[in-house]
Amino acid sequence: MDAAVTARVLRPTHLSEAILMLADGARPLAGGTLARPDGLPRLLLSLDRISELAGVTGNDATTRIGATTTLADLLADRAVCAAQP
Predict the structure, then answer these.
(1) Smallest Cα–Cα separation from 44: which of 67, 75, 12, 15?
(2) How far is CA 25 from the centre of its chain?
(3) What global pTM score does this model have?
(4) Can you tell me the distance from the alpha carbon of 73 to that of 55, in angstroms, rounded to the nearest whole number?
(5) C or N terminus of the chain, fewer CB within 10 Å?
(6) pLDDT grade, residue 67 (50/70/90)?
């Protein structure tokens, strides 16, 4: 039987911190329910606490959906619902 894989999880709260951690070799992770132990990197970067990556913004021409925006957030956003009924 293989030894268990242990990953260190970093949890930055600002995008600037996350960028530095990526430069140090961390692998970004949002959600992670499909992470497999045989492919799990040793250093993970959790994106769920970075507020700059959440939410929906935009104008008449574009819509930006942040990487950590949930489906519930999308369904609650009036502009998204109006544009994509």
Answers:
(1) 12
(2) 16
(3) 0.70
(4) 7
(5) N
(6) confident
Q: Which residue has the tokens 């990526």?
A: 22
Please check whether residue 46 is in contact with residue 10, taking contact to mean a CB–CB distance below 8 angstroms: yes
Report the amino acid identity of residue 35.
A
Is 58's pLDDT higher than 90?
no
Q: Which residues pair with 57 in a beta bridge?
A: 64
DSSP code per residue over the chain:
-PPPP--EEE--SSHHHHHHHHHTT-EEESS-TT--GGG--SEEEE-TT-GGG-SEEE-SS-EEE-TT--HHHHHH-HHHHHH--
Amino acid type, 84: Q
> Could you tell me if residue 58 is left (phi over 0), alpha (psi between -120 and 50 degrees) or otherwise beta?
left
Which residues is 27 bridged to in the sheet? 44
